[in-house]
C-alpha cells in the first residue's frame, strides 16, 4: 500500500499504476491531463507509470464552453 496525493488530497492506494488509480477515482472521463511530481505524463505512459510512496498526482479535466 502506498500513500499518495491526488489533486491535493492524501490517500492510500493498493494500485500499482497511475492509470488504475485515476480510473478508480473516476478522473479519466472525457479529456484530461495527468501530472506526476510536476511532470506531464502522456496518456500512453500512464499504464506503465508505477505508483511510488509520496507521489503527487494532479489530474486536470478539460472543460468546454465559450
Structure description:
It is a single chain. This protein has 66 residues and is mostly beta strands. It has a single domain, classed as Roll (Ubiquitin-like (UB roll)). It is 11% helix and 36% strand. The protein contains 1 helix and 5 strands. The chain has one helix at residues 18-24, and strands at residues 2-6, 9-13, 32-36, 39-41, 56-61. Strands 2-1-5-3-4 form a 5-stranded mixed sheet, with helices on one face. A hairpin with a 2-residue loop joins β3 and β4 (39-41). It starts with a strand and ends in a 5-residue tail after the last strand.
Short description:
The protein is mostly beta strands and 66 residues long.
Q: What is the CATH class name? A: Alpha Beta
Cα distance spanning the termini: 42 Å
SS content category: mainly beta
Per DSSP E runs of 2 or more residues, the count of β-strands stands at 5
Number of helical stretches of at least 4 residues = 1
Residue fraction in strands: 35-45%
Mean pLDDT: 93
What is the CATH architecture descriptor?
Roll
Amino acid at each position: 500500500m502506498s500513500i499518495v496525493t491526488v489533486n491535493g488530497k492524501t490517500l492510500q492506494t493498493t494500485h500499482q499504476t497511475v492509470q488504475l488509480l485515476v480510473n478508480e477515482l473516476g478522473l479519466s472521463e472525457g479529456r484530461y491531463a495527468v501530472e506526476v511530481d510536476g511532470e506531464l505524463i502522456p496518456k500512453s505512459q500512464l499504464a506503465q507509470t508505477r505508483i511510488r510512496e509520496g507521489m503527487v498526482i494532479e489530474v486536470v479535466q478539460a472543460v468546454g464552453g465559450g
